[in-house]
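Query form — protein MSP domain-containing protein

QUESTION: What is the three-dimensional structure of this chain?
INPUT:
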Amino acid sequence: MRNRSPTDSCSAKPPMYFKELSEDYSLGDARSRKATVAYGDIITNPMSVMQFSPKETMKRLCVVNLATEVIMWTLRTDLRGSFDAAPAHGLLRTGEQQLIVICLAAGSAPKKGKIAIDYAFVHPFQPTFDRAIYNAAEKRRHILRVISIE
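ANSWER: The structure tokens for MSP domain-containing protein are given below.
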């Protein structure tokens, strides 16, 4: 199993912002409803809930591809502008894991919401993330609840 190194802190590398990745659609509009909620192809740690607080504004999310196919993925949220993430999209080959650093944006009010990993199966020889291929593919969704406490 290959590991990909995350950035050690949110400021070490310019983060990809959820709002940049979800300008085309968010969790609630008609195009995003095409993603089928599915569990079993990928596994995450934490499994279902990420809890943030004023002292814990950064969390690490580990995603592992359990499927026998290559997965192209992106992060989505219904709390636009509340989180930064690095990386926010990519490819996962069979058995590969990705560590994602998710930070609560400065000045964001405590909220409850969802972070979703939308993913699609792609050709095994796909070298990099390609937005056109991803948008054309049938997507599945893995959802995590987010709780931000005061």
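ADDITIONAL NOTE: The longest helix spans residues 131-136.
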